[in-house]
Amino acid sequence: MPLNRNLRLSILDGGFYSFMVGLGETYIAAYLLAKGYSAIAASLISTVPLLIGGLLQLLTPLLLPRMGSYKRWVVKTSFIQGLSLLVLASTAFLDLSVYWIFLIVSLYWAGGMSTGPAWNSWMTELVPTDIQIRYFSFRSTVSSAFVFLGLVIGGILLHQKQADSSELLNMFFNIFAVAALCRFVSSFFLSQQTETELSRKTILNQSLHNVFKNSLQQKNLLLFIFVFLFGVHFSSCFFNPFMLKELKLDFSNYMFLLASSFLAKMASQSLCHRLVSKLSLQRVFLISTLGIVPLPLIWIFDQSFYYLLFMQFVSGFMWGLYEVCIFLILFSRVPTEKRTATLSVYNLLQTSAMAFGSTIGAVVFNNVDHNAYYSVFAISTALRFLSIAFFPGFKIKPTDLKSIFVIKPSGERLSRGEVPQIILEDAPSHDVKKSKRSVS
Q: Which residues pair with 286 in a beta bridge?
C-alpha cells in the first residue's frame, strides 16, 4: 500500500539523514582546526554560516509557491545540502582561503534549513492524523539513535588519526564523503514518497506576511524564543571548553558526558506526550524552561565527574521536553497555510539568537580577567531568568494535539543544542581542544 510504503521510506530517509548529521555536521568545526585555520575561524564556523543559512532559507516561502510542490522543493534542497558537504570534503586536498569554507558551509545550512519547514508541511498532510504522534515519536527515536551512532563513529575514527595531520585530513575527507553519500541516499528516499493534492493547495498561501498577520500570541511566542535562546547561547559555546580545558576531562569521560545528555534527550522526547496529557502542554513547557534556566550556575558549585554526568542527564532531559513543547505549540496554533513560513521565521530567530548571543558572550569572556567562565555562566543564567518575563500565555485543548507530531532531529535542530560540535586539536595531542553545546 502507498501509505505503508511512504512510512517505511520516511524512516529510511530519517535514518540516513541523521547519520549524516552525526558523522559529518558534528565535526565541521574540528575540520577547520585540522586544516590549520585559527581557533577564531573554528568558532565562527558554528555561528556565521548558520546566520547566513537562516537568511537564505527565508526564500523558501517565496520560491515554494512557484515550484508548486513540497516534494520537489525538499528533494532539491536536500540534494544541495549533500552536494555542499561533498564539496567540503574535497577541500581536504586544496589550499583555500577560509572564506571559501565559510561559503560552502553556509550553503550546507541554507540547504538544510530550507528543507525542514517544507518537509514538515508535506509530512503533515502525508501521514494520517490518527497515527502521527506514535509514528513520528518512533521516527524521532530512530533518527536520534543514528545521530548518536554517527557522532560516536566519527569521534573514534578522528581520534585514532589525530596524531598525524595528513592522515587526519584524509579521514575528514572520508567521513564527509560518506556523510554526503548518506544525504544523497536520504534525498532518494524522499523522492520516492508521494504527495497529496491537499499539500499542493496549501503551498499557495505560504508567505512571510501571513506569519504575523492577526496573531499576537504567535508574535509573543517568537519574541520569547529569541530572548530565551539569546541567553542560552550567551554561554553555550563555553561549556565544552570548560570541561576539556579547565576541568581537563579525558576523552572517554567527555564522551560519557555527551552520551548522557543525548540519551536523556531521547528519553524525554519519547515521554513528553505522556507528560503533556497529564499536566497540560503549558505546564510542561514552563517546567522545561525553568529547568534550563539555572543550568549554567550548577557548574560553579561542583565539578566532580558523577555530578557532571547527572547534570548532563538533567540538561538533556529538559532540552528534550523544551524542543518537543515548542513544536507542539507551533503546530497546534499555526494553520497549515502558515506553517512553512512560520518555521522559516523560527529558523532565522534561532540562528540570529545563536549568532548574537555567542558573539556578545565571547566579547564578555575575552574582557574578563578573573573567572571568565563563571562570569559568562552567571550572566547567561540571569538572561535566561529574565526571558521568563516574555513567557507566552496560551491555552491548548487536548483535542488540538491529536494531529501533532515530533519533528525529526536534524540540521534544522530546534534548540541548536542536541549535537555537540567537536573540535580536535591540530597538534599531535590526545586532547580535545574545543567543542560545542552538549550542555546549555
A: none
Q: Is the dihedral of CA 351, 352, 355, 360 positive or negative?
A: negative
Are the CB atoms for 227 and 387 separated by under 8 Å? yes
Count, residues in the chain: 440
Is the alpha carbon torsion for 123, 126, 128, 134 positive or negative?
Answer: negative
For residue 113, give Cα distances in angstroms to 108, 189, 351, 406, 425. 9, 19, 10, 17, 29
Residue with cell 518537509: 119
Nearest CA-CA partner of 418 in 181, 234, 145 = 145
DSSP string, 340-387: HHHHHHHHHHHHHHHHHHHHHHHHHHHT--SSHHHHHHHHHHHHHHHH
Distance of CA 36 to the CA centre of its chain: 26
**Cell digits of residue 301:** 558549585
The pTM score is: 0.75
DSSP 407: P
Spatial CA neighbour of 139 closest among 412, 364, 363, 410 = 410
**pLDDT 10s digit of each residue in the chain, 440 long?**
577 888 899 999 999 999 999 889 888 877 887 888 876 677 678 778 888 888 887 777 778 778 778 889 999 999 999 999 999 999 998 888 889 999 999 999 999 888 887 887 788 778 787 777 678 767 877 888 898 888 888 888 887 877 777 888 999 999 999 999 999 999 999 999 988 765 555 565 555 555 555 455 567 777 888 899 999 988 877 776 677 667 777 656 776 787 788 888 888 877 887 888 788 888 888 999 999 999 888 877 777 888 888 988 999 899 888 888 886 776 666 666 666 777 777 778 888 888 888 888 888 888 887 788 888 889 999 999 998 888 876 554 444 444 444 333 333 333 333 334 444 443 333 333 333 333 34
Domain that holds residue 107: 2-436
Cα-Cα-Cα-Cα dihedral sign, residues 303, 305, 307, 309: positive
Domain total in the chain: 1
Query: How far lies 305's CA from each of 84, 122, 299, 421, 427, in Å?
Result: 39, 44, 11, 21, 26
Q: Locate cell 519574541: which residue?
A: 223
Q: Find cell 565527574 and name the residue.
A: 305
Instruction: Return the CATH number at 87.
Output: 1.20.1250.20
For residue 148, count other CB atoms closer than 10 A to its CB: 22
Residue 203 and residue 231: Cα distance in Å, rounded? 35
